[in-house]
Amino acid sequence: MASLAEIRARIAAQENKSTSGSTTQSDNAIYPHWNMDEGTSATIRFLPDGNSTNTFFWVERQIIKLPFNGVKGDSAVKQIQVQVPCVEMYGDNCPILAEVRPWYKDESLKEMANKYWKKRSYLFQGFVRQNPLGDDKTPANPIRRFIISPQIFTIIKSSLMDPEMEEMPTDYVRGLDFRVTKTSKGGYADYSTSTWSRKESALTQAEQDAIEAHGLFNLADFLPKKPSEAELRIIKEMFEASVDGRPYDPDRWGAYYRPYGLDVPAGAKAEEQAPAVQATAAATAPVAEQAPWDDEPETASQPVKVPTTPTSDKAQDILAMIRARQNKAA
Question: In the chain, what are the domains?
Answer without folding.
Answer: 4-61+120-222 (3.90.198.10), 63-119+226-325 (no CATH)
